[in-house]
Amino acid sequence: MIRAMAAVLLVGLIMIVQVTVVNRLPLPGGGPDLVLLAVVIIALARGAVVGAITGFAMGLATDLLPPAAHVMGQYALVFCLVGFMVGRATERAPGSSAVTVIIAVMLAPLMSAGVGGLLGDPRVDWKAVLNLWPSLVMYNLALAALLFWVVSRYSGDPRRRRREAVPTGAYPVRRRV
User: Fold this and answer.
1) How far apart are alpha carbons 73 and 85 in whole angstroms?
2) Which DSSP letter does residue 160 get?
3) Is the distance from CB of 36 to CB of 80 less than 8 angstroms?
4) CA-to-CA distance for 111 and 22, rounded, in angstroms?
5) Among 12, 48, 52, 154, which residue's CB has the most CB atoms within a 10 Å radius?
6) pLDDT tens digit string along 40-67?
């Protein structure tokens, strides 16, 4: 219960920081998408169903927050699909989390533009999307690497002992005769 309430508060804080701080930064080519990264990290930690539900909820909140000048439900669909795919990939191949994050961060902006184009959004221009895509991916990958490290570092069992270092003289040394 407390864990769920903390997750809801964290999601709300991420949404507020995205709208009030990150969207106003004068970065070339836009800025990182904290909402996308939150969906990816939650899907990695909790699985496909929780990732899809979280992606839908955060996407719907993104659709409703003010600078919403796009088709309603666009981000809800994209984040729901991203959350489900990341969670499913993590469930099927637990060791491939880093590759899953990279693929999700690279495909999400293209999926969003594709859904906008399919829904008839007149602002979707593929030339502009392909010009902005590399910078969006780089911002998101840089932040995803940091978040991935933090989550993997602190999400483990705190009672588990860290692996101890091998003492220097533990292995036999070959001597030349």
Assistant:
1) 18
2) S
3) no
4) 21
5) 52
6) 988 988 889 999 999 999 999 888 887 7
